[in-house]
Design a protein that fits this description.
The protein is about 70% helix and about 0% strand. The chain is mainly alpha-helical.
Length: about 220
């Protein structure tokens, strides 16, 4: 599976060859989302996509593993950046969930400011029509969870073998993000990275209360028709 190109440090630029690769990758993503939206995910072949970008299938597979991979790139790039953030963060003794949340917020902040939000919306619309994208997303989520657990175990010294809590913390973060993403997608007006980050903070803050949310007494429940 292709990886996103690292962002240059402030005041620096990527080498010319890397900039060309990045432009090709971005062109493939934008063109794929445009063509898939216009003609349907199954209505565009890989050959047609490569022809539209004037590149080869060999070049395509240097960046992506499949049509599903390129169509889901906006969010997949964010989760790859999340793993990179997790690799470099130093715990301060606070809750693990806070560390995971902050790593995801930092990853979100690294996404391109210009068209990333628009790409996410197009990708989500396509996923509703293409079951294979959901299957690809589930596999990627499983792999990302395993990678995150390896980082917690190997670098941060969090025991993950016989303790379900680290896995549950990651699962709760993923659930909170999807909750935030749904709210962000349904919100009126222009969607931005900042608005999605705000929704993520709200969803993460609601996690502890969700675990202890009481059910109403039987007498207070609405009757079924």
């Amino acid at each position: 599976m292709g990886n996103p190109r690292p962002s240059p440090e402030p005041g620096s630029r990527l080498p010319l060859r890397e900039r060309k690769k990045q432009r090709t990758r971005e062109a493939l993503v934008d063109t794929a989302l445009e063509l898939f939206t216009e003609r349907g995910f199954q209505g565009v072949t890989l050959d047609e996509l490569c022809d539209a970008v004037d590149t080869s299938k060999r070049t395509f597979f240097r960046h992506f593993s499949s049509k599903e991979d390129v169509a889901m790139t906006p969010l997949l790039d964010m989760w790859r950046a999340f793993l990179e953030e997790l690799e470099t963060r130093d715990p301060d003794g606070g809750p693990l969930l806070d560390l995971l949340r902050d790593a995801l917020l930092a990853a979100l902040d690294r996404m391109p400011a210009d068209r990333w939000a628009e790409r996410v919306l197009l990708s989500r619309q396509l996923a509703e029509q293409a079951p294979s994208m959901d299957a690809h997303g589930l596999r990627f989520c499983r792999d990302t969870t395993r990678a995150a657990l390896d980082i917690l175990d190997g670098r941060l010294g969090v025991t993950t073998a016989d303790d379900p809590r680290p896995r549950l913390a990651i699962d709760m973060l993923v659930a909170a993000f999807h909750c935030a993403l749904d709210a962000w997608t349904a919100s009126p007006g222009t969607r931005t990275r900042g608005a999605l980050a705000a929704q993520l903070r709200v969803a993460c803050a609601a996690l502890p209360g969700s675990l202890s949310l009481p059910l109403p007494p039987a007498g207070d429940r609405p009757s079924r028709p």
